[in-house]
Each structure stands twice: as structure tokens, then as C-alpha cells.
Amino acid sequence: MNEDEQAQIQAAIDGELRMLDPAVRASDEAVTALLDPEYFEFGASGRRWDRETILEVTGSGGISAEDPAVVTEMAGTLLAPGVVHLTYRSADHGRRVWRSSLWRRGVDGVWRMYFHQGTPTGA
């Protein structure tokens, strides 16, 4: 993998970790800035979310500085120039979830999350 490919994957990882930051999640503007205009998600709850409705839960306080999400097994794959697929596990409040996100670089050069899915796991 060359430096540019590594940099693209790292940009997506950095964005994903910002999305899990309680300070970012508390700001609708900060969350919206990280989401692609066409963003959608299949949540661990089974609900389908879009860019507007996800704001209902990001600022709800589920993830806090006192009880942050723990991320493990983060891995990224460059699918095409400007498109990165991330997978990882998260744990918060005793709930463990396999997560998958697609990040894409816009024409403005900014990386934004295009798709996300969470699947609960017992292990």
C-alpha cells in the first residue's frame, strides 16, 4: 500500500473517531459536517437513519467523556480512490456492536461518512 492509500484510510479512521467523540456528538453542526449529504445508516436497533434523523441520537448523551465508546479491531480498506470501508467493534454501556462505515471524499476534498451499519454482538 502506498502513502496516498494509507493517508486516505487514515482520513476515514480520523473521521470515524471524531464521530465517536462526545464533544463532536454534542454539536449538531459538527456531526452534520462529518456526514455526507446522502448519508444513511442501518442502526443496531434496526432503524434506518438519515443525515437529519441521526441528530436525534448523536447528542443524546449515550456516549460521554465519563463513559466513552471503546473501539477495537479498527481496519480500513481503500475500495476506490476517495472511498474507504472501515470495520471495527465498539463497546459502550455494556453493549457490543460490530460496525461498518463507508467514507467518501467529496469534490471539496473533505472526507464524510456516506453509510454506516451497526450489528449487535454478544462477544
Written overview of the protein:
- The protein contains four helices and six strands.
- Strands 2-1-6-5-4-3 form a six-stranded mixed β-sheet.
- A hairpin with a 5-residue loop joins strand 5 and strand 6.
- It has 123 residues and is α+β, with helices and mostly antiparallel strands.
- The mean pLDDT is 90.
- Helices cover 26% and strands 44% of the residues.
- The protein starts with a helix and ends with a strand.
Note the topology.
Blueprint: H1 3-19, H2 22-25, H3 28-34, E1 35-42, E2 48-50, H4 55-58, E3 70-80, E4 83-92, E5 95-105, E6 111-121
Parallel strand pairs: 1-6
Antiparallel strand pairs: 1-2, 3-4, 4-5, 5-6
Strand content is 35-45%
Q: Which structural class best describes the helix and strand composition?
A: alpha+beta
Sheet with most strands? 6 strands, mixed
The Rg value, from CA coordinates, equals 14 Å
Estimate the helix proportion, in percent.
Answer: 25-40%
Number of strands: 6
Query: Could you tell me the mean pLDDT?
Result: 90
The outline comes out as globular
What is the terminal-to-terminal distance?
31 Å
Tally of helical runs: 4
Low-pLDDT stretches:
none
Widest sheet: strand ordering: 2-1-6-5-4-3
- SSE pattern: HHHEEHEEEE
Name the descriptors.
single chain; 123 residues; alpha+beta; six-stranded mixed β-sheet; globular
Give a quick rundown of the structure:
The chain is an alpha+beta fold.
